[in-house]
Amino acid sequence: MSQHAWSELAARLAQADAVLVRVARVQGSGPREEGAWMAVWLGALVNTIGGGRLELDAIARARELLKQNACPGWHDAPELQRMALGPSLGQCCGGVVEVSYQRITAQDWPHIQEALRPKLHPVALFGGGHVGRALVRAMAPLAFEVRWIDSRDEIFPPDVPPNVYCEHSDPVQAAVADLAAGSAVLIMSFSHAEDLDVVAACLERQRAKGDLPYVGLIGSKTKWATFRHRLEARGWQESDWNHVTCPIGLPEIHGKEPEVVAASTVAQLLIQLRQTG
Question: Which tens digits make up the pLDDT trace of 55-95?
């Protein structure tokens, strides 16, 4: 779920009640996983349970319940509807989806937050340059909580997505010590010297805690070879290198434009997070 969808849900719910439609159960293949949701008003819709005829029929049922004022509330057992994804729906997924319906109000917001708010994965992004900005835009609609760090004053744009927190740190590597456990780290400062200091700080933290699942460094294989030589001079050794990914991004995706690098890197992050849980 995007941060925009979450904000829109809160704003619309403050104006009118809705029906919350959730995927309660999936057997076989389905368009979305259990827990996927959408909120339905008579004239509006937020989020998606997968599109297609399944979603169209669910929207129609939700609006019927709204018109009839017949939908169970948040604290009631939801209405359940079993939908086979076969010829009757014009879909060929072959699975069966059970959809639930509950009426939600602004008073239910604390419970909605607890039930629906996605777990945000912490990301530390070092560098406010062109690729850093492209990454922030690419991560805005995804379940990331981004700590955007730079040593330069006034480098950050005035408007950033709600899941991004800007931080000035000088020296920049000092921010590594108190990163949230499980943070993915992306290193792309304006200075190779700063990049090296941040990498060293990440390696030090890995030795102490081992809680940074991904440390990505922008650059070429030549840059990383140079960094390894300099890190060896500081006392690091070959066994530490597997903690660092350089170059960042999926090797199958080519192109050095900031937006391409950002898309490739975010794809790599999503794969890494799925593998590490």
Answer: 999 999 999 999 999 999 999 999 999 988 755 555 555 57
Q: What is the dotted CATH code of the domain comprising 121-276? A: 3.40.50.720
C-alpha span between 161 and 163 (Å, rounded): 5
18 token code pair: 């809705």
User: CATH 3.40.50.720: which residues of the chain?
Assistant: 121-276
DSSP strand E in 14-134: where?
A: 18-27, 37-40, 45-47, 79-84, 96-104, 121-126
pTM for the predicted model, two decimal places = 0.77
Residue 195 — very low, low, confident or very high, per pLDDT cuts 50/70/90?
A: very high
Task: Provide CB contacts within 8 A for 23, sequence distance 6+.
Answer: 30, 32, 33, 34, 35, 36, 37, 49, 50, 97, 98, 99
pLDDT in tens, 216-243: 999 999 999 999 999 999 999 988 999 9
Average pLDDT in the 10-21 region?
95
φ and ψ of 173, to 5 deg: -70, -15
More confident residue, 30 or 92: 30
Strand partners, 22: 37, 100
120 phi, psi to nearest 5 deg: -95, 130
Coil/strand/helix, residue 222: helix
Contact 126, 187 (CB under 8 A): yes
**194 contact partners, CB below 8 Å, separation of at least 6:** 126, 151, 171, 172, 173
Alpha-carbon span 197 to 200, nearest angstrom: 5
SS3 68: helix
